[in-house]
Amino acid sequence: xxxNALNFRPDGxxxxxxxxxxxxxxxxxxxxxxxxxxxxxAIRPDLVLFTGDNTLANHLHDILFVRIRTVxxxxxxxxxxxxxxxxxxxxLETRGVPFAMIYGNHxxxxxxxxxxxxxxxxxYTQCLPMNETDGSVDCDTYNIPLRTADGRTAWNLYMxxxxxxxxxxxxxxxxxxxxAWYANTSDRLRAENGGKAVPSILFLHVPLPQTKGLCxxxxxDDAGAVRDGDGYVCLDASKAHGVMGESIxxxxxxxxxADAMRARGDVRAVVSGxxxxxCFDGVTGGLRFIQSGGASFRCYGSxxxxxxxxxxxxxxxxxxxxxxxxxxxxxxxxFSAQLRYFLDADEKIAxxxxxxxxxxxxxxxxxxxxxxxxxxx
Length: 377
Prior knowledge:
Blueprint: E1 6-7, E2 13-19, H1 30-43, E3 47-51, H2 74-95, E4 99-102, H3 114-122, E5 142-147, E6 153-160, E7 163-166, E8 169-172, H4 176-192, E9 200-204, E10 215-218, E11 226-228, E12 231-235, E13 240-244, H5 257-264, E14 267-272, E15 278-284, E16 287-291, E17 306-313, E18 320-326, H6 327-331, H7 335-344, H8 349-376
Parallel strand pairs: 1-5, 2-3, 3-4, 6-9, 9-14, 14-16
Antiparallel strand pairs: 2-17, 5-6, 7-8, 10-12, 11-12, 13-15, 15-16, 17-18
């Protein structure tokens, strides 16, 4: 029995909050902290899932405005990562809300391995265990059973690694060993469930290549068009709904995972992050794909910054709801909230410089006029 199994509420529901790409540094942007705090209090999740790029990793040494300086010391990296994680994990520890995580491509772009990073998460009592025994797959490939009061596994959550670095460079793909692990785990859960598939949701950081089946070629001036290689694509409205603000940066290879999922029929949705400007939900090739926007204010983003909720039902394996909450929905559109957004959002840098430059020019003009008046007197 998994020691990370969780239970449904007495009303038969289980509420999950997905936070993708929080990607921050030692001094966490307060707009994101406020947004996450508001989500924790409004949604009151039973579990929070951080689905990769949990810190800005190789830029952990950045502390000044618009300066890139990377870390090259494991000891410094661990210290700064611990501080960066505190901003998103301590609020859950304080509230007593369980959380789990997987790594993204940024999390593995440093001189501290994934295995060495995990104790930084496990230092929090609310962190669920990862894979600490199966050496055939990465440590962030594991599952979380969700059980009813009588001990039945009514739903299951798959957490899969999708990005890593080695001597040959960075890779965003599903290893064949990971796909095999999924198939074996699915078969085991089916056997334990009397031969019936256990309904599941699969989480990973980088979208599967099949996700691109939700797009169609289009013209540059078509609504929702984004650049994709030498052409343009947009969401196919007959397959998906939502927002696509950038082309889908998918895994290079799925390692046979999609075929394995179709053969077993237990996965109700494949959920990813990675592309900060994308937030959509659709079905293609017999699989449902959901992508959530990035939560980070430290990296590129847009007004879709936010988090996603899933509500599962113990008595209905086909029924789950998902809703996406943006910063505006959680923090409001008042002056204080919008000022915080403006000050913290990285894509507002040009505007901030413009305002700063205008203020300096205005101040210089006022000072010059004052000096001129003084001379005349």
